[in-house]
């Protein structure tokens, strides 16, 4: 199993590259997000190896974060590598986290080959398996290592990264509950659930 491969791109297509490593050409399938980030020169791709009875297929990703999310997707029943690549070609990892937190089936089903029932099943099965830190400037820590008075500021940062403005955020932050959150992730999930319930 490969962790990553580093080599020169000798052929680049929207869905794959040929990577030359010591005069051996490796065909590696990629997402559209990875395609847009790599140049036509040397590149390091994080690898997922898919072993079948009739083939040994390599999938490559520009970032370790994208590769790790791909692994979570293919571990869901009914989601194979091709569908996982389609999902990561339609949305970034950050966008997918937002979609999953919002339980936004209508947006997720825009992925080719992903109908509403499968989209709902995917969200249900993956929602407790992903890290909701959103890759902001710094990772948020648990309540044990941050002061309560700073938690509200952290919530603003996270919510603003999801497209909400301060005025909207104030409507949904329960000042009495804020001291009971154990982590920023718990706070954001609860606030987003509140927002969704009020939209219905």
From TrEMBL:
One of its GO terms (biological process) is DNA repair. GO terms for molecular function: ATP binding; four-way junction DNA binding; four-way junction helicase activity. SUPFAM superfamilies: Nucleic acid-binding proteins, RuvA domain 2-like. Transmembrane segments: none annotated. InterPro entries: DNA_helicase_Holl-junc_RuvA_I (IPR013849), Hlx-hairpin-Hlx_DNA-bd_motif (IPR003583), NA-bd_OB-fold (IPR012340), RuvA (IPR000085), RuvA_2-like (IPR010994), RuvA_C (IPR011114). Keywords: ATP-binding, Cytoplasm, DNA damage, DNA recombination, DNA repair, DNA-binding, Helicase, Hydrolase, Nucleotide-binding. CDD domains: UBA_RuvA_C (cd14332). Residues 146-200 are annotated as: Domain III. The keyword Translocase does not apply. One of its GO terms (cellular component) is cytoplasm. Homotetramer. Forms an RuvA(8)-RuvB(12)-Holliday junction (HJ) complex. HJ DNA is sandwiched between 2 RuvA tetramers; dsDNA enters through RuvA and exits via RuvB. An RuvB hexamer assembles on each DNA strand where it exits the tetramer. Each RuvB hexamer is contacted by two RuvA subunits (via domain III) on 2 adjacent RuvB subunits; this complex drives branch migration. In the full resolvosome a probable DNA-RuvA(4)-RuvB(12)-RuvC(2) complex forms which resolves the HJ. Belongs to the RuvA family. Has three domains with a flexible linker between the domains II and III and assumes an 'L' shape. Domain III is highly mobile and contacts RuvB. This is Holliday junction branch migration complex subunit RuvA. It comes from Hypnocyclicus thermotrophus.
């Amino acid at each position: 199993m490969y962790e990553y491969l580093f080599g020169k791109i000798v052929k680049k297509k929207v869905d794959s590259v040929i990577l030359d490593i010591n005069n051996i050409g490796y065909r590696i399938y990629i997402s559209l997000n990875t395609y847009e980030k790599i140049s036509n020169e040397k590149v390091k791709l994080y690898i997922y190896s898919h072993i079948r009875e009739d083939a040994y297929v390599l999938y490559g990703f520009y970032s370790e974060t994208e590769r790790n999310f791909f692994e979570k997707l293919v571990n869901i029943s009914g989601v194979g590598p091709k569908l996982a690549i389609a999902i990561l070609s339609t949305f970034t990892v950050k966008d997918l986290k937002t979609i999953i937190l919002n339980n936004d089936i209508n947006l997720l089903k825009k992925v080719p080959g992903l109908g509403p029932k499968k989209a709902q099943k995917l969200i249900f099965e993956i929602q407790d398996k992903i890290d909701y830190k959103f890759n902001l400037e710094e990772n948020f820590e648990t309540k044990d290592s941050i002061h309560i008075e700073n938690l509200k500021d952290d919530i603003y940062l996270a919510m603003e990264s999801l497209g909400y403005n301060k005025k909207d955020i104030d409507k949904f932050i329960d000042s009495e509950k804020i001291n009971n959150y154990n982590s920023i992730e718990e706070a954001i999930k609860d606030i987003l659930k509140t927002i969704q319930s009020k939209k219905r």
